[in-house]
Amino acid sequence: MTIRILLADDHKVVRQGLKMFLGLEDDLEIVGEAANGQEAIDQARDLCPDVILMDLLMPEVSGIQAIVEIRRSMPDIEVIALTSVLEDQAVYDAMRAGAIGYLLKDTEPEELNAAIRAAAAGQVQLSPRVAQRLMQEVHAPDNPEELTPREQDVLQLLAQGLSNREIAAALVIGEKTVKTHVSNILAKLGVPSRTQAALYAIRQGMVPEPGSGDL
After folding, report:
1. Residue 172 is part of which domain span?
2. N or C: which end of the chain has fewer CB within 10 A?
């Protein structure tokens, strides 16, 4: 399956560089580009990409604001924050907005490719250090709507880092059914992304808090 990608960055040279090496991958397709946050929102609505690579520092509408709008109105689109800013507050803001991942622009191509594929599959990947920091800042409502037993099963597997396909196989259900359960889980918990749902599951003791390796 081809993963459709929208590039959102105000620097043309960055977009060109991303197009160059992402274009080498047979399963990745660049379907559009945006030079500011408003263009990213408009292009997301028109093109319905699977994944957006979003710079956070952009004119007109910031990357953070764009992520909020895209996740609110187009929740099936996953967003990876791709930025030169490495600050705790920027990470927190991006995750609160609904980004499923956060990468620096000097990330190795292989790591970026893997992150895109993971995002498209609905796979949450967090290092223990990042997870522990985020749990202190990202919070679900104190009294969220109760999850059904099957939704709890899906959330537990999601928080363990399984992709939609792997969750479907483990529970013997279809991938579309998994996506429906995930959408219901996000709505009930009042969070915009799988990442925050996974952090909620960790905080509730549904899965062990990561201590070593990736989540």
Report:
1. 135-203
2. N
